[in-house]
Amino acid sequence: MSEDNTTTGTLTNDGLPPLREVIATHDLSAQKKFGQNFLFDLNLTGRIARAAAPLEDATVIEIGPGPGGLTRALLFNGAKNLTVIERDPRCQPVLEQISNHYPGALHVIDGDALDVDVTTLGPAPRKIVANLPYNVGTQLLINWLMQIDQFASLTLMFQKEVAERVVASPKSKAYGRLSVLCQYLCDCDILFDVHRSAFTPPPKVTSAVVQLRPKADRGAEINLTSLAKITQAAFGQRRKMLRASLKTLNINVGELLSKAAITETSRAEELSVADFVRLTQVYDEMAAS
Ligand code: SAM
Predict the structure, then answer these.
(1) Contacts of 160 (CB under 8 A, 6+ apart)
(2) What's the gap in Å between 40 CA and the centre of ligand 1?
(3) pLDDT tens digits, one per residue of 153-181
(4) pLDDT surpasses 90 at 9
(5) Is the peptide bond before 17 cis (omega within 30 degrees of 0)?
(6) Helix, strand, or coil here: 209?
(7) Residue 49 pLDDT more than 80?
(8) Nearest CA, atom 5, ligand 1
(9) Hey, which of 55, 76, 79, 243 has its CA 20 to 30 A from 97?
(10) How far apart are CA 85 and CA 16, in angstroms?
């Protein structure tokens, strides 16, 4: 099969029309309210799809397929059971055309990904792959983290700043609530950066593809809701010492910190993920007594 990886060519690797032609035919001008920045580069969409491989035996879930660049790459790279969730109804005819081209492999949900329990879309192993809409990307990630054992991997395009928060180390500016939640639950890697010029229209900042794979062994099993609550309190006022920032937990903070062997004057960004895990264990013990 011939392969054309330019954004302007007329040949494609999958026999479907080039994306720019699709956009023009269906008048799919990108709309800001949907967080739309489309990828037309087949090299890039292929690279993202291959990063999530193998796809053949997985339930693959894509959020926000838009005109279907990444969708097509996932199908071309072997996905046999792919469900996409798209909020912009203008994309439906295009997605239907792709679905007809790959009979039985693509299922399209017309709706808001925030309302869909993606664990019901097919059996494990489940893999989420997405160039996420910027306005809801972090919220979606947090929702998935809360049920991370349901997934084999998340391969996600974010603004680079968000990707850096996912992998950040203590004492760095990017280290925060998202870093602790992600790193407690998953092995996390930034796979590669994507320059803004790869998108149409180009966003203001560089993006990056990040991959999260649930840890086989997290060490201690803790209450995620408590971890989320503690990290929210701690990083919500990240410049304050913990003895002050944790007051919103309505618990004896002195006792909490002392039992967790954490200095009262330390700040959230100085604590390791293991420190937050210990803090959560003690918090739950105190709350239960
Ligand atoms: N996957 C396409 C690509 O890579 O070219 C489009 C990515 S674009 C950054 C984000 C897509 O998510 C858009 O198509 C947008 O309409 C869709 N979207 C935005 N909010 C959504 C939501 N809450 N649920 C489902 N899709 C959403």
Answers:
(1) 193, 205, 206, 207, 208
(2) 14
(3) 999 999 999 999 999 999 999 999 999 99
(4) no
(5) no
(6) strand
(7) yes
(8) 38
(9) 55
(10) 20
Report the distance separating Cα 138 and Cα 235, nearest Å.
16
- What is the structure's pLDDT at 107? 98
Contacts 24+ apart (CB under 8 A), 251-257: 251/283, 251/286, 251/287, 252/286, 255/286, 256/282, 256/283, 256/286
Domains recognised in the chain with CATH numbers: 19-214 (3.40.50.150), 224-288 (1.10.8.100)
Banded pLDDT at 12 (limits 50, 70, 90): confident
Is the CB–ligand 1 distance for residue 64 below 6 Å? yes
Mean pLDDT value of segment 207-236: 96
pLDDT at 4: 39
pLDDT at 11 (0 to 100): 62
The mean pLDDT value of the chain amounts to: 94
Q: Is 122 helix (H, G, I), strand (E, B) or coil?
A: coil
- Specify which residues 281 forms β-bridges with: none
If one residue of 38, 62, 70 were mutated to test the ligand 1 pocket, choosing by the most ligand atoms within 8 A of its CB, it would be: 38
